[in-house]
Design a protein that fits this description.
Layout lengths: L2 H6 L4 E4 L3 H12 L6 E5 L9 H4 L20 H7 L2 E5 L3 E5 L4 E4 L4 E3 L2 E4 L3 E3 L12 E2 L4 H12 L4 E4 L3 H11 L5 E5 L6 H18 L3 E4 L3 E7 L1 E7 L4 E3 L2 E4 L3 E3 L15 E2 L11 E3 L4 E4 L5 E2 L4 H16 L12 E6 L2 E7 L5 E6 L8 E7 L2 E8 L2 H12 L4 H18 L1
Parallel strand pairs: 1-2, 1-7, 2-3, 7-19, 9-16, 10-11, 10-16, 11-12, 18-20
Antiparallel strand pairs: 4-5, 5-6, 8-17, 13-14, 14-15, 20-21, 22-23, 23-26, 24-25, 25-26
Helix pairs in contact: 2-8
The structure holds flavin-adenine dinucleotide.
Flavin-adenine dinucleotide binds next to helix 2, strand 2, helix 3, helix 8 and strand 22.
Amino acid sequence: MSTVDRVTGAAPFVVVGSSLAGLRAVEAARQVGYSGEIVLIGTEHHLPYDRPPLSKKLLEKGSSDGRVTPPHFRDAGYVQDGLQVTVRSGVPAVALDTDGRCVILADGSAVRYGCLVIATGARPRQPFDSAGQLSGVHDFRVHEDSQAVRAGLERGARVAIIGAGLIGSEVASSARTWDAEVTLVEAQEVPLVRALGATVGSAVADLHEENGVRLLLGACVASLEGVGAVEAIRLDVGTRIASDLVVTAIGVDPETDWLRGSGLQLDNGIVCDANLWTGVPGVFAAGDVVSWPNGQFGRQRLETWTSAAEQGAVAAKNALDPATARAYTTTPYFWSDWYGNRLQFVGSPVADEVQWIEGGVGQGRRAVALYRRADRCVGAFALNAPGETMKLRALVGRGTSWPEAIVFAESRARSYLARQ
Ligand SMILES: Cc1cc2nc3c(=O)[nH]c(=O)nc-3n(C[C@H](O)[C@H](O)[C@H](O)COP(=O)(O)OP(=O)(O)OC[C@H]3O[C@@H](n4cnc5c(N)ncnc54)[C@H](O)[C@@H]3O)c2cc1C
């Protein structure tokens, strides 16, 4: 019996959450030579699929045929026969019994585990209790949401999007490919402050208006109106905006309700140590659901593709071989696509100063900004400059001094201009 097989004994390696982090966890288990039984449990009725295209390519006019299957990472043959994973789809876990080492499912069954990775991600916040009662009102997290919004766009709907964060902005961008009338409503005076900081958040907001979206900042939606189907949103100042398709995108909360009473520490996610261990024997966590101490960036819960994928693999390896467990640290990274522009961010947006190195934000333009905290470069933003991002990520990850970072970025900008 190999080391990784010994940890689980006769009980399977179980992963709850059948999406990106969960898939990476089961793949990593096989990569390290685990030969025992693996069970992958998921609420959705699909095999793991990729979420970023839901608000981008799959929603845009002309780029998809309104496909009915989600963009799966792997097909059923590979998951079930290749990886030898038993998939329990469409059945949520409802409780965790850490003394008995088992996960209780909604159908009443109990799945024993030798070790467990929890990767239950996050769920959209609900702005209105009544939202589900009107047709034409949608969250945006799963394949079905994307399909429903696309169907509304195909019908020529007037669109109101509540929340000008990354997802709301991408939906606005995709809706414009259908020439839809789009209103984007944001409660804050500056959008994306948490993701990009105020300077860059304010600059990128201009892309919406440049592309024909009506952006309302500092505006609160008080209610939805309609009989059976949504007909309008009503702002707290009384303004009525006629809309027959409403997308709510006001952020997500970690999916931890099912773990209440389990003994796991829950505080804006599952609280883990640097090794993604919950502190409970055999139980690790990964992806959007995990809060963990991320090296120089401190305790974080990220909602980004790259960290979810990496954490899934690390959590599985650590769970299966705790003696060689290693800490997971990362320089946070995400991208977003709006109106044909690629936005990328690395590091932390919490800064004392933001300095533009190249140009400024504008449709189709290239721009780079660096973020300073004390004497270090802690973050970087790039617009339409994909060749810079991983270099800037390494620079931020090394804790580069501010003057050194400025010199580096300016010299890259000069070389780019010289090549034009
Ligand atoms: C529309 C959209 C676009 C995005 N675009 C980008 C992008 O451009 N760049 C970027 O960096 N990131 C992007 N992201 C974020 C990225 O997709 C997420 O960070 C990633 O999906 C997180 O993966 P995860 O496996 O941790 O969680 P999730 O993908 O949330 O998956 C969790 C899974 O667990 C299941 N689950 C929940 N509770 C239970 C339970 N009790 N029992 C069983 N199963 C359960 C859920 O149904 C879900 O299938 C985007 C996200 C969305 C929604």
